[in-house]
Amino acid sequence: MKRVGIIGGMGPEATVDLFVKIIKNTDAKKDQDHIPIVIDNYPQIPDRTAYIFGRGENPLPYLLESVRRLERASVDCLCMACNTAHYFIEELRRETKVPFISMIEVVLEKIVEEGDCKKIGLMATDGTVKAKIYHNAFENAGLEIHNFEGGIQRLIMESIYKLKAGEHEQAKELFKNAISVIKSKSYDCLIAGCTEVPVLLSLIDEELLEGIKVFDATELLAKRVVSLCKD
Amino acid sequence: MKRVGIIGGMGPEATVDLFVKIIKNTDAKKDQDHIPIVIDNYPQIPDRTAYIFGRGENPLPYLLESVRRLERASVDCLCMACNTAHYFIEELRRETKVPFISMIEVVLEKIVEEGDCKKIGLMATDGTVKAKIYHNAFENAGLEIHNFEGGIQRLIMESIYKLKAGEHEQAKELFKNAISVIKSKSYDCLIAGCTEVPVLLSLIDEELLEGIKVFDATELLAKRVVSLCKD
To answer: Are residues A111 and A213 in the same domain?
Structure first.
């Protein structure tokens, strides 16, 4: 088995979500069947979106510090439990010899493989949208990503920050409002492209998204990690 | 803030439970308010109970390997998300300069502080019971720990292993049966003294334990970790 290192804490609950999804996607009958994982839950990494908008400290040195900690903890591959942090992935890849799995690439591969998405909507942070993290990766593969207009995007962003603040009820209400508008916009596919979004999705009624295929970036990353690290 | 290192993977779900309890017990309004944690989820650590009964590989070298990994990841204090593994805590403490928090000591301090427990029952693995991990620690403080007779203990142990095998429904039924017998035995206090037990408790109806005070070792450890690591 290989040991995976997770750069986490962005936020901690999203890191829990990735951890749980790795466990659930592992075929295990006893403790020892599970894969070894080192989680560097490092919530002090500065806000990614704020930096992308030119308002905050650069997260890169903190992300690198986390990479170094995980290298010293002898991990065989790396990943990050934060979509927005993928803005820095190429710089991180240049700094380490440890293979670095990209969540964005995993989602892209899955959507290409399924092949039947007509209109793909992106539920992500303002930072991920502005930096075109998904847009660029998908454009290279001939696929178009749609982000949401101001009002919906604002609801998504606010619900993400409410969740990070532990205000689950408010987060849920804001997110429900976003989803009910999105529902009317003829998307057949949605990317849960912020690690807080699957946590938000778990708070709302599944029926709200009936008929729309949701690609959960966290779940897809978890599956990739398990398939790479098992035996 | 201090960085805590968690020796985990015994099992992974119990490690998630400790991680979640640390997050929930932290007063945080944004990611950066949370404490830094390194989790070494190392499910390959051999079965603790099997070893205590002379049937399996010694977990100590694996636990030490985990301590070394966490030391290299620059943690400021250590703990373990497994009560039975505390059989080895003194040997581990001798091997590291990093302060090592004991779950058993944290539970003992809490029970002494509350001061009103008359009959304390221990829900734990066969290994924790046989090695008298709680019994000895509490005896030194003048407190008596009661473990359960064969039939109930067997139900508890089986439910723990079913949970580790991911068989939640069966685990829940076995555990419910154990609790309904325990309920008739005049305990006023119970220690959830296996990290799988709080997970089992979360699966059953709270009313089943009405009138009995439950000391969740995982929750108490989480609170201690937060108070030690915050600022």
So the answer is: yes
